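Here is one chain, start to finish.
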Amino acid sequence: MDSFYSRVELEKFGFSSFGENVLISKKASIYSPDRIKIGSNVRIDDFCILSGDIVIGNHVHIAAYSALFGSNGIELKDFSGISSRVTIYSSSDDYTGMYLTNPTVPAEYKKIYGGKVTLEKHVIVGASSVILPNVTLKEGSSIGAMTLITKDTKEWTIYFGIPAKELKARKKNLLELEQELLLKEVENNGNKQS
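Its structure:
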């Protein structure tokens, strides 16, 4: 038995759109698929949760047990990836004690804050990290395991810790590899059409 949905099965989900070579585990939980756009060459592993307004670019991997809660929008741009048990929140309750919390409480007793979360190109997020609402991880950011992201990162910088702290610059060699891969894909697509 295949552990990923077939293209025919994916078409029945009713995604807003999805590209080629999309692998979604049959053990993943997808809520409101009509609000989810998925590019090409995407893999979503076992026990992931995707809910809300989510845009996934090309060549993106979402590892096992990760959760994306996109009530205010989440975007994972090309060549970004998240390791196991990463959680991304685009909204959150107020934790000050001034309001009640959780989804069982009527809205007038709660204070929810939120904002879109964006992972730009070539962002990688290490295992068990948490990303809070209204944050942009700038192109090439690298987030170490078990890191808490509460604010925007700088481009091509490595972060680690609770809360996240800047460690050092990240190398950009992968940009050449990206161009090589994309060129091969164009060549392969041309050969298929011939």
